[in-house]
């Protein structure tokens, strides 16, 4: 599946970009949003792009090579203020964060993000991060694993899965995505396991939420988002806009609470009264967009 930027038109409409502006994309991915942003701000605009995945940076350097005044950085967006300081940029006109995992990451078996791709159990968006999903699964206590599965995945069988993982790793380490999936399936109640193994099973795979929860924990995705929002707000010009696309209820709650706080303090006005979600047509063309929510605020002058 090729990369499709989520809520592209809606995001550009809400940002209200103009030629010559300075814009930040804190989660480049494959430059789906970035390419269209650059078409709007033009050669007189300035674009700063970040992604913590070095493969995404390499990909975007090729895609955006024809544009001048483009600055790309292999950094987590929580470090965005430091990047701006290094560039001597005090204020920007617009910012977008698309905080989901990318199609390229999901489809690369070596990265270990997907339960239906055989590969090492990694899940690090930045391969230089010290701990992978394999480390968490093999080293954390049963209680810690249960807390991750329930807290980040709302997994109904969090305790059962944590216990099964601890039993399995006493026999041998869980090294691959297949190892983890097999362990989870063996932990299911008998009737549920029988249904899952039937051909044509169409419901959510039992490993879905566990893989999601581990990915969030490995990359500290919620902590990064909580840190990034106040930092970039201070660098947004009066009249500037901040857009966030989230894919998980915990991410969306962080964005919603922060945006409401700014609006209540009289520092912002909402551009989106309610979160914008993909149309049925977009969900059909790009099933991975189905949980996306776009929220946008404008900094009051």
Quick recap of the structure?
The chain has helices at residues 8-15, 32-41, 54-63, 80-86, 103-107, 133-139, 142-153, 158-171, 177-187, 190-196, 208-219, 221-233, 249-264, 280-285; strands spanning 22-25, 46-50, 70-73, 92-98, 236-246, 268-270, 293-299. With 301 residues, the chain is of the alpha/beta class.
SS-based class: alpha/beta
Beta-strand content: 5-15%
Measure the end-to-end span: 43 Å
Question: Numbering strands along the chain, what is their spatial order in the largest sheet?
Answer: 3-2-1-4-5-7-6
Helix content: 40-55%
Number of strands: 7
In this structure, how is the largest beta sheet organized?
Answer: 7 strands, mixed
Enumerate the spans where pLDDT stays under 50 for 5 or more consecutive residues.
Answer: none
The SSE order reads HEHEHEHEHHHHHHHHEHEHE
Gross morphology is elongated
Return the average pLDDT rounded to an integer.
94
- CA gyration radius, whole angstroms: 20 Å
Number of helices: 14
